[in-house]
Write a structure and sequence with these properties.
The protein has twelve helices and 13 strands. The chain is an alpha/beta fold. The chain has a five-stranded mixed β-sheet with strand order 2-1-3-10-4, with helices on both faces. It starts with 6 loop residues before the first strand and ends with a helix.
């Protein structure tokens, strides 16, 4: 048996990554393991001004952490599963897959507007080629612009224009009131002073007020899991997008804990693994691998285990959003890996490979 000591758990240094790693640490500590979080800077963290699809390879946020595992510097690493390449080193395994958070995407707007309510030409921010293609497929009148940064930063960017405009409007009105003694217009229009209005703002709204606006986003699309794990879901307006129309990325909402194949991996598996999530994400990643798209192509795969079947929808879009190959299939649990491979082949035969090839040419 392995002598129990402190488990060194690698994580990226972003606030969201640390929150995710903390949930894994807490689960292990409940079973009386000692855990140390080790922050690691990844290749994706270093290239801040490029979209993930432009990095030229998959695994931009993953490989640096797994190298630490393989080198023996840490015992395991915590990843967002959707960032993981479908191919892994032979002696590295996904030891644990905890219970999944919501898998879908959300549309965040300053005022709670839905996708259908956005005006023609509205600017929507996303860092994902998949989300860009899905947005254009549904609304080809939209202007989809790139956006980078962690979840907090992206939310601040979409809140900033309207909040700053409102602050300026209130400030100018207060100045006019000061110059016109006895003018009751300010009280009639505003129920509180500028200072009182500012004090009522949430922390993220205050940060948005101080942010320089480079692109005036009307909305952004991001994963609901990230929004929840960042603690922001209660402070902003958002619309849940349909998992049938905006099919999520394979593994979205799930975490993966990687380790060297062996005794430590077995212990992590026993404590952390949630069988339902493992089956669902295995189907999704098997389909993704069969399509040979990685994280560079507009591919969505979403699986839900119900009884003896895994209900699966897959969507492969042309990067411009003007065409889509989409199919559904009930995959038997007993043969879910083989059946997922067959599903990927059916999608390829239906023309999905042409959209993947178009994405690779971008």
């Amino acid at each position: 048996m392995r002598t129990r000591g402190t488990i060194r758990l690698a994580t990226r240094g972003s606030d969201l990554a640390i929150r995710q790693a903390t949930t894994v640490r807490d689960a292990l500590e409940e079973r009386h393991y000692e855990v140390e979080l080790v922050e690691v800077e990844t290749e994706g963290d270093k290239i801040r001004d490029e979209l993930i699809a432009d990095l030229g390879k998959t695994g931009a946020f993953v490989r640096s952490l797994d190298e630490k595992v393989l080198d023996g510097d840490v015992d395991a690493a915590v990843h967002s599963m959707k960032d993981m390449p479908t191919e892994m080193p032979d002696d590295l395994v996904v030891a644990g897959i905890p219970e999944r958070a919501p898998a879908g995407d959300v549309l965040v707007t300053p005022d709670g507007s839905t996708l259908d309510e956005l005006e023609d030409g509205a600017v929507v921010g996303t860092a994902s080629m998949r989300r860009q293609a899905q947005l254009l497929h549904e609304r080809d009148d939209l202007t989809v612009e790139p956006i980078r940064g962690n979840v907090d930063t992206r939310v601040e960017k979409v809140l900033a224009p309207s909040l700053q405009a409102e602050h300026e409007r209130r400030t100018e009105a207060a100045k006019e009131k000061k110059g016109n003694a006895g003018d009751d217009d300010f009280e009639a229009e505003f129920d509180r002073t500028v200072e009182e209005w500012f004090d009522d703002r949430s922390e993220i709204e205050r940060r948005a007020l101080g942010r320089e606006v480079e692109t005036p986003y009307d909305a952004i699309v991001l994963a609901e899991a990230g929004l929840q794990r960042s603690g922001l879901a209660h402070y902003i307006e958002y619309e849940r997008l349909s998992n049938e129309t905006f099919v999520p990325a394979a593994g979205q909402g799930a975490l993966a804990v990687t380790a060297r194949d062996g005794e430590t991996a077995e212990e992590l598996h026993e404590v952390l693994d949630f069988p339902r999530t493992r089956v669902e994400t295995t189907v999704e990643r098997t389909v993704l691998a069969g399509l040979n798209g990685g994280c560079i192509a507009p591919i969505g795969v979403h699986a839900v285990l119900q009884g003896e079947y895994v209900h699966t929808v897959a969507q492969v879009l042309h990067p411009d959003g003007d065409d889509v190959v989409q199919q559904r299939r009930d995959i038997p649990v007993e043969t879910h890996v083989a059946a997922a491979k067959e599903f990927a082949q059916a999608l390829t035969e239906a023309g999905a490979d042409e959209h993947v090839a178009a994405a690779r040419e971008r």
